[in-house]
Each structure stands twice: as structure tokens, then as C-alpha cells.
Amino acid sequence: MKLTAAAAALATAMGAAPAWAQDTFVRIGSGVAGTYPIVGAKIADLINANIEGVHATTVAGGTEANFALMAQGEVDLLLTYSFLTPIVARGEGSLGVPTPQARHLMTLYGALFQPAATKGSGIASLAEVDDGEYRVWGANRTSIFYPMIVAALEAAGTSFEAIENAGGVIEEIGYGDEAGAMQDGRLDVGFFSGPAPYSLLMQVENEPGIVLLGLSDDEIAKYAEILPGVSAGTVPAGTYAGQEADVTVPYVSNELVVSADLDEELVYKITKVLVDNHKEFHGLFAGADEIAPAIMLRNAAVDVHPGAARYYDEAGIAAD
């Protein structure tokens, strides 16, 4: 949050005016693909429309890169998966940048982590990805998907090293290019996270077709040991063409994180605006209707920002 010296002096002189009342800029790390840019843009719109003197904008970039920007004071809020927040806060993420100021503002909605192989690859399970010279999407170490993919492979008894030892290739193209790479034959296996059906996966479903690579109960349990806070989710039969049975996959929670450095009263206002207008998110994409006050303190793996905590307490919203 930035505040001009003149504005700060004016606010102090006025006494009643909050410190953030004049030309305050709030920056939201909203990712580069999938649902995050949509959610980030809506959050910015709601803040701009409802909090006078505050100007919210979105910042595109990978999730861990946005955490690093928060550590530097260049991002005030960001979208992430709740399992990742404490890892990065401790400095144990791929970038090694501690973000101790990361605080929970609200849980938004869940996502199904959906591994998939192209229909013609012959792969029917994640355990088979090291059985041949397959091309597998591995994201990059700064991507939020990297720990999710590593956990999925480990739960299935394999790894990037095993894939490469079998003659396979780990691709690190961007998430937004993954579906296209599966369509044109550059990838045999990809990983997607979102609602079901998911728009990016539906592209591949149309051509060349997909096989969802579900996890067993034991594999889900192993996944949750590696990434605490993840649970089992279901992609119902018939969600994608040729899917004849329910498929079990990891279910993760999306979280809005706020910097501890952001003014308490401003965070209170932001929380109130987002809670009061939570139905504005509904219909933006499949799964967005999950956003509701009842889940906003669910899976909070770091401390709740005092401004948000004060609003939730006053509104009678508690963790379930």
C-alpha cells in the first residue's frame, strides 16, 4: 500500500480520516491463466466501486513470484492455494523467499486437481508415466503447480527423475500453453486445476481426447501427507467424453492472502466489501458459486489478518 506524504499529513490533520483515505493503491497478484485473473479482476472492481480513495489493480505473474513481490512490499493481496501459503511464508518455496507477512483474508472456492493423458498415449494411471518415453508437463519451480505435480507423482510411486530415466521428457511450458501442447502432440500428460468440467481440459477433450488419471484412496492419503490441507474430490462420471466412472482426484482450496503490512481498517473494509458482494463472483466460472461467507475461514493455514478477523467476529462468521 502506498500513501503520499501530503495525503498522510492531511489525514493526520483531519483526525477522523483513516490513513488510507487518499489515493491508496492496492495491488492484487492474480496469476496468469485459469480462474485467478478472473477472480482478481472482480476483486479489484469491487474494491474500486465500494471503497472511496482506494485504487485496486491486478498484477500478472506466477504465484510464488507474487509472494516474493509481497515480501518486497510490491503486492498487497494475492491468490493462491491454502496449502502453499505456510510453505512460502517459511521460505521453503521454490524461490526461497520468506513471506512472514502473509495473512489469511478469506477462502474463496475449491479446485479439483485433474491429471490427464491424451487419449492416444495409452496411459491409464499416473504410475504408468515412467513406463515409456512420455512427454509430461512439469510446470516450473516457481509455479504453484510444481509442488502439486511432484506430490501427485510421489503418491503414485514415481517422479520426474523416473520419467527422465525411462527416456521421457519433462516440459516446463506455461500453464496457458499446456492444453495446446496436448492438442498438437507435444505433451502426453498434463495437470489442470479448476472446476469440472474445466475449460482448458475441454479443449483437449475435443481433440485428441483425454483420459483422467485418478488417484486411489491410498494415493490421496499420501498426497495429503505431502501437502496438508488437501482432501479427496470427485469428477463425476460423464463429465468428459468417454469418462464412464467417477474419478477421484485431489481437492484444494483457493485462498486470498493479504499482507500484514496493509492497514487494519482498510483490510476490514475490503473484507466487508467482498463478503457483502460475494454473489458477484457467482456465475463467473464453474465452481465460483462456492464462494460464500460460511467457508471463508476454512483451511486457513496462517493467521487471519486482524482487520479481517475483526469483521468476521462482528459478522458472526467462524471457522467450520
Overview of the molecule:
- It is a single chain.
- The chain is an alpha/beta fold.
- The protein is 33% helix and 21% strand.
- Helix 5 packs across helix 9 (217-226), helix 7 runs parallel beside helix 8 and helix 10 (264-276) packs across helix 11 (306-315).
- The radius of gyration is 21 Å and the shape is globular.
- The two termini are 31 Å apart.
Which architecture name of the largest domain does CATH use? Answer: 3-Layer(aba) Sandwich
* Integer-rounded radius of gyration: 21 Å
Query: Unreliable stretches, pLDDT < 50, 5 or more residues?
Result: 1-16
- Beta-strand portion reads 15-25%
CATH superfamily of the largest domain: Periplasmic binding protein-like II
Biggest β-sheet, characterized? Answer: 8 strands, mixed
Shape descriptor: globular
Strand tally is 10
